[in-house]
Amino acid sequence: xxxxxxxxxxxxxxxxxxxxxxxxxxxxxxxxxxxxxxxxxxxxxxxxxxxxxxxxxxxxxxxxxxxxxxxxxxxxxxxxxxxxxxxxxxxxxxxxxxxxxxxxxxx
Length: 107
Fold this sequence. Notes:
Blueprint: E1 12-14, E2 29-31, E3 45-47, E4 62-64, E5 77-81, E6 92-97, E7 103-105
């Protein structure tokens, strides 16, 4: 280790375990039980139970919906989803790139 430390700045977490493991990353806003629990990136908005729970190093994402987990290193994405599927996977009904404007709709 280098002996330096980092304190995340200007983050808002509402809900038990929201931003629970935040060690780095600034300007994240989460609402919901365990929303953004693994995030280390910045400028993310996560709304819902476990919303953005799989995002680790992503930045500038908007994740809405209980169980809309995201992906480990996704950045600049909009994900609107529902609850977990029967097999435990994430159900994303709308996915969009905030960089290109591409939109994907799924059932």
